[in-house]
Design brief:
With 411 residues, the chain is α+β, with helices and mostly antiparallel strands. The chain contains 9 helices and 20 strands. It has 4 domains: 71 residues, wza like domain (wza like fold); 82 residues, Outer membrane lipoprotein wza domain like (Outer membrane lipoprotein wza fold like), CATH 3.10.560.10; 87 residues, wza like fold, CATH 3.30.1950; 80 residues, Outer membrane lipoprotein wza fold like (Roll), CATH 3.10.560.10.
Amino acid sequence: MRNIFRLTVWSLLILLIVCQLSAQTTELVDDEIDAMIVLQAADKVTISYIDVDSKGNPVQRSNIFTIRPDGTIFHELLGVVTLANMTIAEAEELLTEKFSQFFNQPRVAVSVLEKTSIKVILYGEVSRMGVFPIKPNTRVAEFIIENGGTTPEADLARITVSRADGGKIIFDMEKYLFTSEPVNNVILKDKDKIIVPRFKVQEKYGRLSKNYVLQYGNVLEIIINEMALMETNPAQSESYVIDSEGNIFHRLFGLVHLGGMTVDKSQDVLAEMAKRYFREPIVTVNVLELSSRNVFVFGQVVRPGIYPIEGNIQLAEFLANIGGLTDEADLRDIVVTRKQGRPVEFSLEDFLFKRDDSKNVFLEDGDRIIAQKRQRGFFVRLSEKLQPFQIIFTFITGIFTVYVLLNSKLI
């Protein structure tokens, strides 16, 4: 009985010491974290300092301030002080220095009463939809870019910022990226909704003709007019598809290589060829469709769904582009079923670690990609269930070891 009593006492002492050390460590960590909080516009803070009354007695004074939009406060004794973008520790150091003009050994404490919380909604053709907390003075373009950007289907010229008061602002991110014109890259406010719409291909590439590069699968509308007859007798449009070699077969010019050219460059090339048939040819090229091919993605992928494929793209590249696989995926068991032909079994593990490219197939229209879930063996599942008991056993073993060591010394 005496031995059991001693064992219990020692166990309680050990637990008490561990808990005390843990509490002290937690308190230190919390203090360090608080000191690292960065102050922002609209934060409400308390500034406390030691003052001296008319009789020379020390008096503690506290004032509450709201940091103004320009990042400053106005203190009755110090005047204008900039606090935004400082940590609490930095703010206390700055204020201590300023109070030193009036007191011999000033002591200053800064605490946050109310932290600014601005939340906005992002929706539409973006990589990540959701509700996001943001910092004050964040602009719409930077916010979209920092949160993953837009999808290839996004209409960058018609991004809408819908305000809580009912107002709407149209932001032209296309001009923002390619010009220096003012384009309503506004500062976001609390409860703003940012909607990125999908574009119509015909409208989009009429505006982006200088930037888009033609590639396999694009469906082109080509119109060749004689300048003198454009208004009285306009030509009919003709449609062509860029093949896997980057070519079209034009009824007048025969085989023409356009893949890899911008839309404007392709217009110049076709206009030069048209001079054999027209006196002053005016050529217009529009992209009617990016691609008429789609693949279906199922299973253990980060973003399952239906995806258009453009140009020649292989399976591994495609999986990387859509965000990769989940932690539960079996890298060795990815299956591609095709409209015609046997399924293709692909091992991403062999591709990555053995550099085996033999099954890294080019994707085709209608392919269905299935990423299988990893099968865990009996012993793996058993070890997961036994893990809590292992922790308890380790703790008891530790106490027993301490007890044995103490007994051996007493003997």
